[in-house]
Specification:
about 210 residues, alpha+beta, Beta-Lactamase, 2 domains, five-stranded antiparallel β-sheet, two-stranded parallel sheet, about 25% strand
Length: about 210
């Protein structure tokens, strides 16, 4: 792994990945990254860059400059709390972890398995494997802000499934394709009840008891 450009790996981290069995990541089709013990980004593989560029998150293919970035700074609440808590525990306890999650595009439903591996006191490797991809089967609602603006003039959007909460007495979360592709300025991130219960029960319990 000595030929990885400096833009994708922190100084000295190639030896860590090689000696602990993660040399294969450079040729893996699964997007993967690693963080050091301070949870700063220490490595991203080619597939991570390709996925980010294809989904509009990284700009141009050769413009990545995120090595050394604190990973909490590239996440939004409430999922920031969940992942920082999980990664911190895994680093401290030197444990592996598997977590399924959705990462859908405006046109396709996608489910991933995130597998996280400790690096024996030097951080974590996180590998994201696609489990399922298909065209959306849920019809899109029209992007009418009056249906979704709450009393604070904000539109709650689930950080996990990207549905938005319809304002009113009955709790209803709608798929609005246009706002997945280009969220309006009024969007505020939240978790819908199904995602909070099924995917992030531990986080929900923590927030409820706080």
């Amino acid at each position: 792994m000595q030929d990885i450009p400096d833009s994708r790996i922190a100084t000295g981290f190639a030896d860590t990945l090689s000696t602990q069995g993660f040399k294969f990541l450079e040729h893996s089709s699964d997007p993967a990254f690693a963080v050091d013990t301070s949870m700063r980004l220490a490595y991203v593989n080619r597939s991570y860059i390709a996925f980010g560029c294809a989904n509009g998150g990284l700009g141009e293919q050769d413009s990545f400059s995120g090595i050394g970035t604190y990973i909490g700074d590239v996440m939004s609440d409430p999922l920031r709390q969940f992942y920082l808590m999980a990664y911190g525990t895994l680093i401290k306890d030197d444990k592996t972890w598997n977590h399924e999650y959705d990462c859908s595009s405006p046109t396709h439903y996608r489910r991933y398995l995130q597998s996280t591996f400790p690096l024996k006191g030097k951080g974590l490797v996180v590998i994201n494997r696609l489990l399922k991809e298909q065209s959306h089967t849920v019809a899109s609602e029209p992007p009418v802000k009056d249906y979704y603006l709450n009393e604070n003039q904000l539109i709650p959007q689930c950080s996990h499934c990207h549905k938005v909460r319809r304002h009113g007495a009955d709790v209803k979360w709608d798929w609005v394709t246009e706002w997945v592709a280009s969220p309006p300025q009024e969007v505020t991130h939240s978790l819908c009840e199904p995602c909070a219960d099924y995917y992030y029960g531990e986080l929900k319990a923590t927030l409820t008891s706080a």
